[in-house]
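Board notes (copied after class):
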Amino acid sequence: MSKLIRIGDETIVKLEALSKLTGLSKQKLLDKAIVAFSYEQILKKANEQYAALRKDPRAWKEMQAEREDWDVTLADGIKDD
């Protein structure tokens, strides 16, 4: 499905330069940029939640205990140091 959107002149110039540099179409570059931004936002949110968890000593301790419980399920053969 194709839709038209407006983008700024500066963005068009950058998009054209990236297209020449990479050989990728402008559409493909925009697709990649949106996917990368989406991943960035997911990681940002995860980091915020992780930081909040670390600020709560009780919740942090519970999470550490749960990690230890799950750690025994690994069958990678690697011994703890």
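Comment from the instructor: The chain has a mean pLDDT of 91. The chain is about 75% helix and 0% strand.
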